[in-house]
Amino acid sequence: MPRRLPGVTKYSTKDGRTLWQYVLDQGHDPATGKRLQRRKRGFATQTEAAEALTEARRSVRLGTYVEPTTLRLGDYLHSWVETRATNGLRPKTIASYRQLIDDYVIPYLGEISIQAVTAVALDDLYATLLEDGGKRGKGLSKRSVRYTHTVIRAAFGDATKKGLLVRNVALLADPPTAKSAKAPEPETWTPEELSVFLAATRDHRRGPLFHLAALTGLRRGELCGLRWIDVDLDAAELRVRQSLTTPDGVPQVGPPKSAKSKRTVSLDQGTVERLLDQQARCEDLAGAAGEDWTDSGLVFTNDQGSHIHPDNVSHEFGRAVRDLDGQVPRISIHGLRHTHATHLLAAGVNAKIVADRLGHHSVAFTLDTYTHVMPGQHAEAAETVAALLDCAGDQANPTR
To answer: So what's the architecture of 73-172 in CATH?
Structure first.
């Protein structure tokens, strides 16, 4: 007969099984004088229960003890996302978190206790998502799986700070590496291809919008949220102060993507003329709509003066590209932003100016994103340095 271990007892379940539990004695409540005990059940053997009790006592001594909980991972993640929504994250970011959690985490791990999730379980989740976690049974990209890991890591980090977890097990997991998950090179057009598209869409009802996107690098939401009060045609500049995005598919006006996204963008004269064309078009639309016209103050509107759904802008751009019947490669409207950045860097514009113009959070991000543009500039830099050395050598040795 095994010897009795203090704090460890066995019990019988309704289905007749014999399991073990421990009771952790934490002294008395100083306010009420009642004895404080914490119980954890479900151990298959006496030894397992005893080892868990020893670890719990050690955690109490170190101040790292975490109260056992049956809180399911799915319930915690849903609650965590709503907390993030009140802490200043953009609605579109919150919507992406919700979709990711509902599509890629809860179907696999949502029903288990948050404290039962291990690094191995997360590794298995990532492997499953890579194999067949996407739509119609296709595997997700490494980039999507790494983003899933980033969200889980953040959620578990907060759970650890709140005392729900002893440690953040996501830090021990092995998601796809940052290098393997790096985004592919941005899709862009050459200057010749862009000229073909802009010429072909000059009389398109969204022609001025396409032109502005290509010559300023504004994001789709920034274009749809641009107001006339933020455009100064005399000074040839515009200010990005708001964005129209679609969290959960519903158009919503809000601040730009980041603090750096609030910026002033200079305009070339050709773009100023296209915006003058757009002003005239808005006046014509207002006259045609009469009392049905909505004075939204937006630069780009529908036929009644209200906002354009950003998705409709993407669809119209896609149709305009397809109508060129292969004269230019197919890219998304976001590709116009990449095209603008690429053309600036290829022309030798300082990367800090490019980063400021596009509203990037750092010059490092700009250079990393558009590294493919730089090879020729690296060679030019090498030749420039060599020429400087030759010049210095000639000055030091005038008889050479």
So the answer is: Orthogonal Bundle (1.10)
